[in-house]
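Course assignment 3, question 2. Fill in each field.
Student: A.L.
Task: Predict the tertiary structure for the chain below.
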Amino acid sequence: MALAARSVSAKAGATRGFLGTRVAKVQNGSRVVMRAGNWLPGSDAPAWLPDDLPGNYGFDPLGLAKDPASRQRFTESEVIHCRWAMLGAAGVLGVEALGFGNWYDAPMWAINGGAPTWFGISVPFDLNTLLAVEFVAMAAAESRRGDEADATKRIYPGGAFDPLNFAKGDIESLKLKEIKNGRLAMLACLGFVAQHAATGKTPLQALGE
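Answer field:
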Protein backbone atom coordinates (compact mmCIF):
# COMPACT_ATOMS: atom_id res chain seq x y z
CA MET A 1 0.00 0.00 0.00
CA ALA A 2 2.82 2.38 0.93
CA LEU A 3 4.64 1.49 -2.30
CA ALA A 4 1.52 2.26 -4.32
CA ALA A 5 1.12 5.61 -2.58
CA ARG A 6 4.71 6.53 -3.34
CA SER A 7 4.20 5.55 -6.97
CA VAL A 8 1.11 7.75 -7.27
CA SER A 9 2.99 10.64 -5.67
CA ALA A 10 5.89 10.24 -8.08
CA LYS A 11 3.55 10.16 -11.08
CA ALA A 12 1.89 13.35 -9.89
CA GLY A 13 5.23 15.07 -10.42
CA ALA A 14 5.50 16.64 -6.99
CA THR A 15 8.83 18.12 -6.03
CA ARG A 16 10.32 19.07 -2.71
CA GLY A 17 11.52 22.66 -2.38
CA PHE A 18 14.34 24.07 -0.28
CA LEU A 19 12.10 24.48 2.75
CA GLY A 20 10.60 21.03 2.44
CA THR A 21 7.33 22.24 0.94
CA ARG A 22 5.87 20.06 -1.80
CA VAL A 23 4.80 21.98 -4.88
CA ALA A 24 3.03 20.31 -7.78
CA LYS A 25 4.55 20.92 -11.18
CA VAL A 26 2.61 23.34 -13.33
CA GLN A 27 1.62 21.85 -16.66
CA ASN A 28 -0.18 24.81 -18.29
CA GLY A 29 2.84 27.05 -18.83
CA SER A 30 2.13 29.25 -15.79
CA ARG A 31 4.95 30.32 -13.49
CA VAL A 32 4.72 29.73 -9.75
CA VAL A 33 6.28 32.51 -7.69
CA MET A 34 7.38 31.41 -4.21
CA ARG A 35 8.86 33.22 -1.26
CA ALA A 36 12.66 33.21 -1.24
CA GLY A 37 12.91 31.39 2.10
CA ASN A 38 12.67 31.99 5.82
CA TRP A 39 15.27 33.92 7.79
CA LEU A 40 14.43 31.93 10.93
CA PRO A 41 13.85 28.24 10.11
CA GLY A 42 10.77 26.84 11.79
CA SER A 43 9.10 30.21 12.34
CA ASP A 44 5.90 31.33 10.64
CA ALA A 45 6.27 33.83 7.82
CA PRO A 46 4.43 37.12 8.44
CA ALA A 47 1.13 37.08 6.57
CA TRP A 48 1.47 40.73 5.60
CA LEU A 49 4.60 40.12 3.48
CA PRO A 50 3.54 38.96 -0.01
CA ASP A 51 5.26 35.84 -1.33
CA ASP A 52 6.11 37.54 -4.64
CA LEU A 53 8.01 40.36 -2.94
CA PRO A 54 11.62 40.18 -4.24
CA GLY A 55 14.00 39.01 -1.55
CA ASN A 56 11.22 38.24 0.94
CA TYR A 57 12.66 36.02 3.66
CA GLY A 58 9.90 36.76 6.15
CA PHE A 59 12.03 39.18 8.18
CA ASP A 60 9.84 41.69 9.98
CA PRO A 61 10.07 40.90 13.71
CA LEU A 62 8.73 44.34 14.70
CA GLY A 63 5.81 44.27 12.28
CA LEU A 64 6.88 47.52 10.62
CA ALA A 65 5.42 46.48 7.25
CA LYS A 66 1.91 45.58 8.44
CA ASP A 67 0.58 48.81 6.98
CA PRO A 68 0.51 48.44 3.15
CA ALA A 69 1.55 52.06 2.59
CA SER A 70 4.51 51.69 4.94
CA ARG A 71 5.50 48.39 3.30
CA GLN A 72 5.53 50.01 -0.13
CA ARG A 73 7.61 52.92 1.16
CA PHE A 74 10.11 50.57 2.84
CA THR A 75 10.34 48.42 -0.29
CA GLU A 76 11.00 51.43 -2.49
CA SER A 77 13.53 52.91 -0.07
CA GLU A 78 15.43 49.64 0.25
CA VAL A 79 15.85 49.21 -3.49
CA ILE A 80 17.05 52.81 -3.95
CA HIS A 81 19.51 52.45 -1.06
CA CYS A 82 20.69 49.14 -2.51
CA ARG A 83 21.50 50.79 -5.83
CA TRP A 84 23.42 53.62 -4.18
CA ALA A 85 25.30 51.14 -1.99
CA MET A 86 26.33 49.02 -5.00
CA LEU A 87 27.65 52.13 -6.74
CA GLY A 88 29.40 53.21 -3.54
CA ALA A 89 31.03 49.84 -2.89
CA ALA A 90 32.22 49.62 -6.49
CA GLY A 91 33.62 53.16 -6.25
CA VAL A 92 35.43 52.51 -2.96
CA LEU A 93 37.17 49.42 -4.31
CA GLY A 94 37.64 50.61 -7.89
CA VAL A 95 39.33 53.94 -7.10
CA GLU A 96 41.73 52.33 -4.63
CA ALA A 97 42.50 49.40 -6.94
CA LEU A 98 43.36 51.81 -9.78
CA GLY A 99 45.73 53.79 -7.56
CA PHE A 100 43.76 57.04 -7.27
CA GLY A 101 43.69 57.17 -3.48
CA ASN A 102 41.05 55.84 -1.11
CA TRP A 103 37.51 56.64 -0.11
CA TYR A 104 38.43 58.17 3.26
CA ASP A 105 40.91 60.71 1.90
CA ALA A 106 38.81 61.58 -1.16
CA PRO A 107 36.74 64.38 0.47
CA MET A 108 39.61 65.82 2.52
CA TRP A 109 40.18 68.55 -0.07
CA ALA A 110 36.94 70.17 1.11
CA ILE A 111 38.23 70.27 4.70
CA ASN A 112 41.94 70.96 4.27
CA GLY A 113 41.67 73.04 1.12
CA GLY A 114 42.57 72.10 -2.41
CA ALA A 115 40.78 71.01 -5.56
CA PRO A 116 38.64 67.92 -6.12
CA THR A 117 39.73 65.22 -8.54
CA TRP A 118 37.92 62.50 -10.43
CA PHE A 119 40.10 59.49 -11.29
CA GLY A 120 43.14 61.75 -11.16
CA ILE A 121 41.54 64.49 -13.27
CA SER A 122 41.20 67.89 -11.62
CA VAL A 123 37.59 69.10 -11.34
CA PRO A 124 37.33 72.90 -11.89
CA PHE A 125 34.54 73.49 -9.37
CA ASP A 126 34.56 74.54 -5.74
CA LEU A 127 32.55 72.86 -2.98
CA ASN A 128 29.59 75.25 -3.19
CA THR A 129 29.23 74.71 -6.93
CA LEU A 130 29.38 70.94 -6.57
CA LEU A 131 26.76 70.99 -3.80
CA ALA A 132 24.45 73.20 -5.89
CA VAL A 133 24.74 70.93 -8.94
CA GLU A 134 24.13 67.83 -6.84
CA PHE A 135 21.12 69.40 -5.10
CA VAL A 136 19.46 70.45 -8.35
CA ALA A 137 20.18 67.13 -10.09
CA MET A 138 18.91 65.00 -7.20
CA ALA A 139 15.85 67.19 -6.65
CA ALA A 140 14.91 66.94 -10.33
CA ALA A 141 15.39 63.16 -10.45
CA GLU A 142 13.45 62.53 -7.24
CA SER A 143 10.69 64.90 -8.32
CA ARG A 144 10.24 62.99 -11.57
CA ARG A 145 10.21 59.68 -9.72
CA GLY A 146 7.73 60.98 -7.15
CA ASP A 147 5.34 62.11 -9.88
CA GLU A 148 4.88 58.47 -10.95
CA ALA A 149 1.58 57.17 -9.58
CA ASP A 150 2.40 53.52 -10.18
CA ALA A 151 4.36 52.27 -7.16
CA THR A 152 6.06 49.53 -9.17
CA LYS A 153 7.23 51.91 -11.88
CA ARG A 154 8.76 54.17 -9.25
CA ILE A 155 11.17 51.32 -8.48
CA TYR A 156 11.38 49.65 -11.89
CA PRO A 157 10.62 52.42 -14.41
CA GLY A 158 11.65 50.50 -17.51
CA GLY A 159 12.21 52.63 -20.58
CA ALA A 160 14.55 52.62 -23.54
CA PHE A 161 17.80 52.43 -21.56
CA ASP A 162 18.75 48.76 -21.64
CA PRO A 163 22.08 48.49 -23.51
CA LEU A 164 22.69 44.88 -22.42
CA ASN A 165 19.11 43.70 -23.07
CA PHE A 166 18.62 42.59 -19.48
CA ALA A 167 14.89 43.36 -19.70
CA LYS A 168 14.46 40.53 -22.21
CA GLY A 169 15.45 37.93 -19.61
CA ASP A 170 13.82 36.72 -16.42
CA ILE A 171 12.84 40.00 -14.75
CA GLU A 172 11.80 38.41 -11.45
CA SER A 173 15.14 36.64 -11.17
CA LEU A 174 16.96 39.91 -11.87
CA LYS A 175 14.94 41.69 -9.17
CA LEU A 176 15.97 39.03 -6.65
CA LYS A 177 19.63 39.28 -7.67
CA GLU A 178 19.50 43.06 -7.40
CA ILE A 179 18.09 43.07 -3.88
CA LYS A 180 20.52 40.38 -2.69
CA ASN A 181 23.56 42.16 -4.12
CA GLY A 182 22.27 45.48 -2.83
CA ARG A 183 21.87 44.19 0.71
CA LEU A 184 25.38 42.78 0.56
CA ALA A 185 26.67 46.14 -0.71
CA MET A 186 25.01 47.99 2.18
CA LEU A 187 26.70 45.69 4.65
CA ALA A 188 29.99 46.14 2.77
CA CYS A 189 29.76 49.95 2.99
CA LEU A 190 29.02 49.70 6.70
CA GLY A 191 32.01 47.39 7.02
CA PHE A 192 34.28 49.87 5.20
CA VAL A 193 33.36 52.60 7.67
CA ALA A 194 33.66 50.37 10.74
CA GLN A 195 36.96 48.92 9.53
CA HIS A 196 38.54 52.35 9.02
CA ALA A 197 37.25 53.58 12.37
CA ALA A 198 38.78 50.56 14.11
CA THR A 199 42.06 50.14 12.22
CA GLY A 200 42.55 53.28 10.12
CA LYS A 201 43.05 51.08 7.05
CA THR A 202 41.32 50.97 3.71
CA PRO A 203 39.63 47.79 2.42
CA LEU A 204 42.46 46.73 0.12
CA GLN A 205 45.10 47.51 2.74
CA ALA A 206 43.32 45.25 5.21
CA LEU A 207 42.79 42.61 2.54
CA GLY A 208 46.48 42.58 1.71
CA GLU A 209 47.54 41.69 5.24
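Instructor remarks: Residues 68-97 form the longest helix (30 residues). The beta strands are 14-16, 22-24, 117-118, 121-122.
Grade: pending
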